[in-house]
Request: fold
Amino acid sequence: MSLSPAFREESMLNYIIRRVVMVPFLLIGVTLLIFLMLMALTPVERSALYVRDVPRNERVLEGIIKKYGLNDPWHKQYWRWLFGTTVTTTEGDVTTVERVGGIFRGDLGYSRTASQPVAELLARRFPASLELTLYSVLPVIAGGILLGVIGAVRHNKPADHIVRVFGIVGWSFPDFVFGLLLLMAFYAGAGWFPPGRISDWANKVIMSPEFHNYTKLITIDALLNLRVDIFLDALRHMVLPVITLAYLWWALTLRVTRSSMLETLRQDYITTARAKGLSERTVIRQHALPNALMPVVTLGGGTVVGLLSGVVIIETVYNYPGMGAAAAKAASQLDVITVLAFVLFNGLILVLANVVVDILYAYVDPRVRLD
Amino acid sequence: MTAQEMPMPTLAPRTRRPPNWLERWLGHDVYRTMKGLVTNPMSVAGLVLLGLFIFIAAAAPLLAPPLPNSSPYNIPRDGYGDVPKPPGAEWKLRQPPLPFWWKAVTGKDQWVHLMGTASGQWDIYYGVIWGTRTALFAGLAITLCGALIGITVGAISAYYGGWVDMVFMRITDLFMAFPFLLTAMTLSAVLTPRLGKGLLAPTIALIVFSWMGFARLLRSDILSLREREYVLAARVIGVRDSRILFRHILPNAIFPTLVLASMRIGSYAITFAGLSFLGIGAEVGFADWGQLLSFARDWMTQLRDYWYIIAFPGVTLVLFVLSWNLVGDALRDVLDPRMQGSR
Reply:
């Protein structure tokens, strides 16, 4: 298939425009769906969007519901939830006018389980999840690809069978069971890798005024502060979560890579390359792999996004203070306002990240744009 | 799936040998599928395991007779102490009736904690046995309902095309724009005060976010089939549209969706157990593997001594999921012509 350069460029631009134009609509959809869940709550539960403590006194409660219009028609409330509202309070002779709410103003309500505004909770938890993502991405994706390629190249040989069994067992292993087993062996047993994000002594150092938190990513801050001991301590805490993540995602990545590679190796152009007398190594590395990795690119994009949105169960098992663990805690105590804020945040990340991945993908593989 | 990848009519076996009675009765395709499943060692292992689990679920009252006047799904507990007891410990308080086989096998009159107890003295054996029913219910209910919704949406979308397709697919995109577990967790938390603590809230929450994959797969399969010669031929001789869809397209397009469904049962069972591991779903003490495993979190530093809290429910859950995945994997290999001869 040959495309003139002009056609390709135009179609790329069109493609990007088409994808970007969709973003606002998707965002409206995401917020609407979340708002729909919010409206399933009673006005009393919803009042946590605006007030710190939901009062028990019924008269006060009614006043709050009236003040913030929690019984208004849904579209008014939706607007208020998005952009906030101005409330006038008169106490005696003092009249205060304040602006409250509005997710676009960064006001996500008040978290009952964390006893602080949800936005602060998010800001505190995000760096931890980001750090875990940074250290997992490479082993997760590269390891899966390597195993998949080995399986396909050594098709039906012992290595392939091992990879297959490894894949299907990993696919069947619930993350929390695997995590608990690792904890049993390496924490309760050997005592090498503790749960959590950092040891107590290191935490004290980080909290001290001499330690500068530049990025909130402990490993990077530790290096910037020239504290190798803290860097190693933070790494030590990430070993088990990364192993768990890697093992579970490998199962998926290797399956996709293996079957895609098998299909590519059966193509005519591979036979041609072999017939030309190229070495098997060249055929696999330069002819088969780039094409076989196309579906893996999509999967890789999904992996990064999935990791970034906080791995709920793994963070919970390892007591890792990321977004996922916070969301799980809130959900188990039915603190819906907090969880919804996490879903909103992750939904936004997902929508934006998917657009980026799609565009990158279309750039790498021109066929996508011809759909 | 593109046109070249669709199954070609297989005539070869008929010319090679006459079909036996089973093949005549089941039809060639079903026969081939069944044969593929029972000749592949991996899927045989899966089927045996699956049969075992179905047996355990069916025979739960015999294997672990419940306390009288109490729901069998409430795990019986031996007191309220914190410290777990190892497997084989004697049952002291509120002992459930002995199963009939216990005396015959061991010759004793005393019921023991076969797999030990978790913190709070919940009996692990009862949880594992009765939890099999919970896991089967969750996996099947979520997958069946999700697949049904997905098939409906996908078929309508592909059949009507145009703006209907547009709207349905954008809604599908929207549901996919959410992190699955997190959203299901949230919906479950929203529903719990309304439906009460139990299996219903998490099951519904998972169904609501499980149908999109089915819808997309079926839609694309129908779209590629719509252009095939035999559909064109049917159209030329004047077959009604609905008949073309239900008799000619859907039966051919549905197989990949069914394979996907069989491969999803295990992962939904994991997700469901994961939710109850996080404390979302049924009441504490409900027979559910995820919940049993969550007791292990109280003993993080002493897991070496209390290995049985993880080992029994954990291994059971892994085997359960493995059995579905082995069968699903084999089913995919048999039904997906691309994979034929590639194993």
Summary: Chain A touches chain B through 55 residues (CB under 8 Å). The radius of gyration of chain A is 26 Å. Residues 1-7 of chain A have pLDDT under 50 and may be disordered. The first helix of chain A runs from residue 5 to 39.
